């Protein structure tokens, strides 16, 4: 069995003595697309930030491909929520994407021809090559999101952490992002994405983690994305009708017990 792309062990994060994440265990295999799903305030974005060390953990350990996470390692790329970024900063689309190369260049080397070419190729993958010289603040929300995805792609990472990559984008951008995620999976990379549109979880992702401060369940979508688990996650109310074929195993029975579940508080 190969080493998981991401392992989270006993992770707890608290703000002012209030637990935001409590004793989270999570294992993500290599080469999968995994959604992090849960209600507002469940700790989804905090989980990504804690993995990256952007917020301090009260307890727990994070391993990336079997080793403690090191921001200098260059194997993890992060796409934050678009709303968390100051888009009025005066810089071009190409410059934003080339920022993704800074980690491997270090502080004392400037991006050169190779980095510029890699950035242009990343923009082409997200269908934004024609906007390379445009000021970032002149773009639509969906275009800005694709630029941030290109900035992550140029890093050539093995693990991509994305916070609401489909939030507020148009249908064309959503299709473009899905195509890129599937291509990354085909190249052996792993994607873990906070996702809010439950209806598209079975279509877009292989695995899902249901989160509400505690981990409610995680595993293959077919096994975990069930009405019972969604009720536990959302406090008894399933936000949308889950198709029965999603919540049952291939032999027609209930999802097997290999899906990790814990009781709700």
Helix content: 25-40%
Indicate the structural class.
alpha/beta
How is the biggest beta sheet arranged?
Answer: 7 strands, mixed
How large is the share of residues in beta strands?
A: 15-25%
Helical stretch tally: 9
- Please trace the helix and strand order, writing H or E for each element: EEEHEEEHHHHEHEHEEHHE
- The largest beta-sheet arranges its strands as 6-7-8-3-9-10-11
The overall average pLDDT, rounded, is 85
Task: Count every beta strand, where a strand is a DSSP E run of 2 or more residues.
Answer: 11
Give a brief outline of the structure:
With 265 residues, this protein is of the alpha/beta class.
Task: Please explain how this structure is put together.
This protein has 265 residues and is α/β, with parallel strands linked by helices. Helix content is 29%, strand content 24%. The chain is built from nine helices and eleven strands. It has a seven-stranded mixed beta sheet, with helices on both faces. The protein has a four-stranded antiparallel beta sheet with strand order 2-1-4-5, with helices on one face. A hairpin with a 2-residue loop joins β4 and β5. α4 packs across α5 and α5 packs parallel to α6.
């Amino acid at each position: 069995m190969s080493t998981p792309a991401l392992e989270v062990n006993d992770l707890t994060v608290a703000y002012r003595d209030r637990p935001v994440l409590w004793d989270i265990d999570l294992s993500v295999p290599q080469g999968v697309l995994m959604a992090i799903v849960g209600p507002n305030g469940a700790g989804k974005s905090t989980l990504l930030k804690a993995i990256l060390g952007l917020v301090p953990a009260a307890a727990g350990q994070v391993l990336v491909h079997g080793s403690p996470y090191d921001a200098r390692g260059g194997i993890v790329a992060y796409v934050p929520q678009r709303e968390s970024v100051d888009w009025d900063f005066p810089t071009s689309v190409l410059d934003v994407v080339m920022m993704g190369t800074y980690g491997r260049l270090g502080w004392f080397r400037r991006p050169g021809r190779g980095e510029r070419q890699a950035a242009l190729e990343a923009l082409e993958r997200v269908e934004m090559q024609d906007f390379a010289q445009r000021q970032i603040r002149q773009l639509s929300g969906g275009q800005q999101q694709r630029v941030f995805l290109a900035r992550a792609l140029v890093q050539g990472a093995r693990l991509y952490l994305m916070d609401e990559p489909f939030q507020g984008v148009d249908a064309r951008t959503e299709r473009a992002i899905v195509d890129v995620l599937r291509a990354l999976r085909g190249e052996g990379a792993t994607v873990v994405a906070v996702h809010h549109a439950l209806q598209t979880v079975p279509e877009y992702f292989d695995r899902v983690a249901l989160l509400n401060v505690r981990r409610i369940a995680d595993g293959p979508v077919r096994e975990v994305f069930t009405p019972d688990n969604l009720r536990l996650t959302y406090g008894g109310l399933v936000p949308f009708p889950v198709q029965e074929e999603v919540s049952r195993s291939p032999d027609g029975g209930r999802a097997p017990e290999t899906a990790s579940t814990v009781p709700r508080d």
